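Human: If only I could read backbone structure tokens as easily as an amino acid sequence. Underneath my words sits a plain record pairing an amino acid chain with its backbone structure tokens. Take your time, and here it is.
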Amino acid sequence: MNAVLTELKIAAYGAWQRRWLALRVAWGVCLLGWLAVAMFPNSYESKARIFVQLDDVLAEQIGIGPNDARRDLQRVRQTLTSAVNLEKVIRATRIGDDVHDRREMELAVARLGKRVEVVSDQDNLFEITASSGDRGLSDAENARLAQDVVQKMIDIFREENLSGGRGDMKDTLAFMDQQLAERKGELEAAEQKRMTFEAQNAEMIPGSGALANRMEAARSEMRGLEADIAAGQSALAAIEGQLSGTPATIAVAGVGGAREMVAQAQGQLAQLRARGLTDSHPDVVAMRNQIALLQRQAAGERGGGGAPNPAYTALLSIKTERQANLQALQSRRASLQTEMATLAGKAAGEPMAAAESARIGRDYDVLKAQYDKLLQDREELRLRGSVESETNAVKFQVIDPPSTPRAPVAPNRPLLLLAVLLVGIGAGVGTAVAVGQFRSSFATTAKLESATGLPVLGAVSQIVTEATREFNRRRLRLFAGAGGALAGVFVLLLAVEFLKRSMVA
């Protein structure tokens, strides 16, 4: 603790020894700081409070309840500081005197938007605040400008709430009717497009299952055909084995039965064709094959004689029938394979068709929702317009008119002036102490002994003459005067600041 006190005493002694340096630094820092503070423009703020009554019996009966009115006021509060309204304020006040083109107007709107605020303290109480701190205007002009801005905002608030929508109600309804007509045309076109697509792609519409069912049915039928074809081939092979062991004719003298059977078969073939059966019909094909066989048998009778074997003929007829059935099954299999290939091709395009169907349905639903919403809004606007033309749903009253600023809200110049003075004094003292730390002199014998490592036997005191004391007293008076002058400048600046405020008031 003693070491700390010793160091503090040494630092204080060093600062006092270099007090003129500290004073010069303090004067320099204070002058620069006070000049910077003087460059800050004063900003004056004006406030006003307005009361809005939301209760209205007729409005509540038609559905315009307090919540709806409150939402409308909230919307107005939020849009009150919009660029359009701020531009109205600029043109109605002296802010617009320096605005000559659109770019300057946009910059002025951006600056004014930062200085205007609308706050809802309660459901029906609003506070409008505006500030002005233009460098090119005097304090009185800035105070007056802040008050004018608040007054113009009140006028806009009154216009927006009491009469903002009545004059434009007819135009709004006409616009809503136009939008409804356009949405109706788009909705009809979307509905026609959806119906056309569903008609053209009925099998591929998601949820119908027609394509998948047909594919599954075709696969089941193909499995059945493969089994039937295998059974038919086995049966045909069995009958061919029986035919190979059965003679085609038997020896019977004077019998020409083969030619008679050929004639009978040709008559049956003619009857089949008379019924309208084509040559590719299984019955016609079987009959033609039987006629060809009988004709070969008849030719054999002319050569060597003999009667046809009835057992052989029966087996041959069975074989012909089974060949026809097998051929019909194979033809059906080929047809079914072609159909399955077609269905597979359609199935490959089903995701795209499903996506297109979903997109068309989504567009239709969106248009339908928009049309229904517009229709409902149009009817609500029509009824609301009728009610608002007969009664005021909002009662407006100015509780506190725009206040006349008496003192700037920013900057706090007295506090800044005092802060600059303290910073200047601290900078001067700190500079003197820092310079003392870099000097090679020693304030005490203990410091000298610690630095050199040698014992210090004693110290010689300074002998001050009367002339030196007088000289030191004069310098001390000069120092006190310079320090007092610094404090006097600070007091003078404070007096000027309060004088300017009194002139504004």
Q: What stands out?
A: The two ends are 55 Å apart (CA to CA).
